[in-house]
């Protein structure tokens, strides 16, 4: 059996007949819960998770259809994902309220969770995250086509070096199966499917009612991913970064206790690796504020 088929840490919990992987460390509360971006797994955030576990309970997990969790039809509604997470945390006996750490599309799931279960959200740290007002500051959202199997194999092959660098400091017994799992066509397809219908996230959030006035830290990654450098002009890159800064400044201003922090050297996909100290500091600062 391939080592990638079994998670190196964590355990499975049954939620409505679906096995979901959750790994928890540390004690105390409020618990910090990481919501991964598309194509990311919970264990991708192990470096920051281990640091957070030194001062409170920290949780990483895989959504249904991603990572080591059981398959699900993707993309899913934000409400389905948020409700699944709530049930998983209850099944695993992780008590709320929570500090949610949301990366990329994890921001959409975090905001829907806050709409549905406002009393369970103590605060949110947004890591270059999706927001329903994206189009006010950045280019129009469009549905994305899911690549075929051959293209996904090529993407996986070309990503091997990225994952090796990204997880270089992870323990060897975690790093090897984590990379192997990422390089499967199944994992690559799940990531593409999850991010394929961003306009639907926008519409669901806009129709979902107010997001509670919970403290937050919004962080932007102003470094340039390799793919961005290939396909975007310097002018477009500058416009994108300016738009992101305006978006997250507005997000911080939308609550009574919000803060915006820019990370000049962090890239979107690897913000938690490029600036692990700054991300951990933001989580700790917000956690102290709400605890």
From TrEMBL:
Residues 32-279 form the AB hydrolase-1 domain. Pfam families: Abhydrolase_6. GO terms for molecular function: catalytic activity. Gene3D superfamilies: alpha/beta hydrolase. GO terms for cellular component: membrane. InterPro entries: AB_hydrolase_1, AB_hydrolase_fold, AB_hydrolase_sf. This is Pimeloyl-ACP methyl ester carboxylesterase. It comes from Micromonospora avicenniae.
């Amino acid at each position: 059996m391939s080592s990638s088929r079994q998670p190196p840490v964590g355990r499975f919990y049954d939620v409505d007949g679906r096995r979901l992987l959750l790994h928890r460390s540390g004690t105390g509360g409020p618990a910090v819960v990481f919501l991964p971006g598309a194509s990311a797994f919970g264990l991708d955030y192990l470096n920051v998770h281990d640091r957070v576990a030194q001062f409170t309970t920290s949780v990483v997990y895989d959504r249904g259809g991603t990572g080591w969790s059981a398959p699900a039809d993707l993309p899913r509604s934000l409400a389905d994902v948020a409700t699944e997470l709530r049930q998983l945390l209850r099944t695993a006996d992780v008590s709320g309220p929570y500090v949610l750490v949301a990366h990329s599309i994890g921001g959409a799931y975090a905001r829907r969770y806050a709409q549905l279960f406002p009393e369970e959200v103590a605060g949110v740290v947004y890591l270059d995250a999706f927001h329903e007002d994206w189009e006010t500051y950045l280019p129009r959202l469009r549905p994305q086509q899911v690549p075929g199997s051959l293209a996904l194999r090529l993407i996986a092959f070309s990503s091997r070096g990225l994952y090796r660098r990204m997880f270089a400091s992870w323990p060897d017994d975690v790093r090897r199966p984590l990379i192997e799992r990422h390089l499967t066509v199944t994992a690559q397809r799940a990531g593409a499917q999850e991010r394929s219908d961003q306009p639907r996230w926008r519409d669901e959030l806009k129709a979902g009612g107010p997001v509670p006035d919970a403290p937050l830290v919004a962080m932007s990654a102003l470094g340039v991913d390799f793919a961005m450098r290939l396909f975007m002009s310097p002018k477009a890159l500058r416009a994108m970064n300016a738009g992101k800064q305006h978006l997250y400044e507005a997000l911080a201003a939308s609550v009574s206790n919000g803060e915006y922090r820019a990370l000049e050297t962090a890239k979107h996909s690897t913000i938690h690796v490029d600036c692990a100290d700054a991300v951990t500091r933001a989580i700790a600062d917000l956690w102290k504020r709400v605890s």
